[in-house]
Amino acid sequence: MIKKAALSFDKDLFKRSVVYNVKTLYRKSMEEATPQQIFQAVSYAIKDAIVDKWMTTQEEYEKQDPKMVYYLSMEFLMGRALGNNIINLQAHEPVKEALEELGVDINAIEDQEPDAALGNGGLGRLAACFLDSLATLGYPAYGCGIRYRYGMFKQQIRDGYQIEVPDNWLENGNPFELRRPEYAKEVKFGGYVNVYVDENGRSNFKQEGYQSVNAIPYDLPIVGYGNGIVNTLRIWDAQPVECFRLESFDKGDYQKAVEQENLAKNIVEVLYPNDNHYAGKELRLKQQYFFISASVQAAVAKYMRKHEDIRRFHEKVTFQLNDTHPTVAIAELMRILMDEYYLTWDEAWAVTTKTCAYTNHTIMSEALEKWPIELFSRLLPRVYQIVEEINRRFVKQIEQIYPGNHEKIRKMAIIYDGQVKMAHLAIASGYSVNGVARLHTEILKKQELRDFYEMMPNKFSNKTNGITQRRFLLHGNPLLADWITFHIGSDWITDLTRLTKLKVYADDEKAQQEFMNIKYKNKIRLAEYILEHNGIEVDPRSIFDVQVKRLHEYKRQLLNILHIMHLYNQLKEHPEMPFYPRTFIFGAKAAAGYRNAKLTIKLINAVGEAINNDASICGKIKVVFIEDYKVSNAEIIFAASDVSEQISTASKEASGTGNMKFMLNGAITLGTMDGANVEIVEEVGEENAVIFGLSSDEVIRYENFGGYDPMEIFNNNSDVRKVLMQLINGTYSKNDPDLFRPLYNSLLNTLSTSKADTYFILKDFESYAEAQKKVEAAYRDEKGWARSAILNVACSGKFSSDRTIEEYVKDIWHLDKVVLPLKK
Ligand code: 26Y
């Protein structure tokens, strides 16, 4: 079966297609074409190979009429498409050969593609991994999102500071996308609602005086691995609705026409670069309703093409809400069912509550979306009426279950204190609520969503996150992928649990050497990348100790860099002390307006500058900040890592998914008992990870009952005191000793102890330093390290997004796999 797909790729046809594309697109021969032009030509040739499968899959969906999941998400962090598509077509070998024969290096061509960075971090990348798994497992699925003109900003580091540069990812066109104007939908904003009573005495609600935008879908193919399935990611662009010619309007209409035009221009302009931080921007609510209204309309229209009875919609459709960002889908579906299909409230509610399911990705209170009533009702007047009615009925239900308990209403109502609480709307109106790692789900049930869990325990479940091994091992780490396949066969590509077969090699010295040799080669590849992009030389024989993820105080990059400052102090004081050379690697984007995050980037670069240029420590420590961390360079970074820094304050990281990518590539986790780290340690064994710090219970106890005073640690621990003083005495900011004072204050604020060190950095410092010593000792034991690293790979099977998707299918979505008819 798998072999057949590989054979069905016609290498000669592909070669001719590339040459032809270069000619017709650019009037050039292969020799004359630029690498970018060849990338375009190759991509169109690959798209050719995809399109037939895409049509067949969609035809089969039409014929078999299976239930579909619509994964609704503001973010899809796809990264590059070309290499991944080639891999999933199982065409890597023939394509590589064909290109070689044309005198072209496949890697250089892949490097021409800009990342599709339509997401911030974990939540957006999870959506991308889920699409890969859904297609590979043969489940009918749509991703629905926004075609941002500018994705996640590009990060430049100037003088140690982050600069945000617009990400014009569509500059050279996107060869894989398909514009589909024939499926455009109109989306209405603002105005007011009028009620008309018709001849049957029925009330009809009509939004009037509104402004509207046309939503134009662009479809991207999602290629399943070796199974001929091609699903669709549909992202919506906005265009002004066709108006009469502007000049023929009287003044009022002219005004409106211009406003409508601007609305369309602005709405999909840019991805908000906030990760886990709600800002309450009006344009963001417009973005949410824009893509949700278009997607829900499209789903309903598609359903009605084949079915008569909209009251059975939920039998064929399920909407998975990726956090609260798409939650307005609930009210929009109610609106369409009632206002356009004339269902009664109860009928519409019966459908909606069996269609929508909600995933929670965070317990951080600052990430919760709460829209002011004024804004919400002004922008979405009809939708707001519906939310009000959902709230009225929900509050009534609470009163029935907890008579006289006003506290419950205050805590649980959807609308309260002038705000619409989107999580409450999602929980009250959906049939499923899930967390993204076991610990996270437990915290939701016991703390954050306790009242909801008590009232409707059956809705709650856990779905521990996962990642796709196709991108993060097969594509990102070809040397290791080949080594694994050589030893245990290739089944792991679609069944990651097969990796357990590698356990027998953990103690095999030859295997250990081969494994460490591959790691070494990958470290050379990363060292070359760092030299080319950062101009810093690093030693691939040193320990590569890596923290790559969004910059956030709860993720504690500050703990990492403070510890590096401490190590440097020690090396300066005791030049002869035993020390295994270490390269500390960071990669992180900070939200543009997040002061402490940006200052932490500056600190990392300032410390790096000092340490990297201090000849007296003989290069024993290097600190590298990789500019513009993104999916494409992440693949190179994971493959080259020895130590995986997963050091969030326990209870704060819902799951983490980078942790899984490191593990899959044989890095050892240095982490707290937080998020999915707990399950990683459970799989690989405590002896093959290094764990430190407060437990989530301890953190939550301090948060609820107090009793932690960072000043006490400052007073009693001279190592901590020394690095903290270095933050404010100009050690790393000669010309501006106060530069890092905000970071110092965040740890020790003498004005208010309750606000000092909210992420327990000083509390965990000593335990972290101890853990880092254990890492060094472990690495000195070469065989022991190789053993642990191999076991990490061997035990990472649980963390495939294939497993996660199977759990969603079984417990929430109830989809059937689609089998394609055998090709003649
Ligand atoms: C409200 C808005 C500004 C907002 C935008 C983005 C809020 C949150 C986010 C993004 C959240 C996010 O990425 N959460 C991460 O989701 C991952 C996938 O489940 C988890 O692994 C990770 O722990 C969590 O922080």
Automatic annotation (TrEMBL):
Alphabetically ordered keywords of this record: Allosteric enzyme, Carbohydrate metabolism, Glycosyltransferase, Pyridoxal phosphate, Transferase
GO process terms (BP): glycogen catabolic process
InterPro entries tied to this protein: Glycg_phsphrylas (IPR011833), Glyco_trans_35 (IPR000811), Pyridoxal_P_attach_site (IPR035090)
Essential cofactor(s): pyridoxal 5'-phosphate
A GO cellular-component term linked to this record: cytoplasm
GO MF entries: glycogen phosphorylase activity; pyridoxal phosphate binding
Superkingdom in the source lineage: Bacteria
Glycosyltransferase is among the record's keywords: yes
Modified residues (N6-(pyridoxal phosphate)lysine): K661
One Pfam family of this chain: Phosphorylase
Catalytic reaction equation(s): [(1->4)-alpha-D-glucosyl](n) + phosphate = [(1->4)-alpha-D-glucosyl](n-1) + alpha-D-glucose 1-phosphate
EC number: 2.4.1.1
Enzyme class, first EC level, given as a word: transferase
SUPFAM superfamilies: UDP-Glycosyltransferase/glycogen phosphorylase
Function recorded in the entry: Phosphorylase is an important allosteric enzyme in carbohydrate metabolism. Enzymes from different sources differ in their regulatory mechanisms and in their natural substrates. However, all known phosphorylases share catalytic and structural properties.
Cited NCBIfam families: P_ylase (TIGR02093)
Family: Belongs to the glycogen phosphorylase family.
Name assigned to this protein: Alpha-1,4 glucan phosphorylase
Species annotation: Kineothrix alysoides
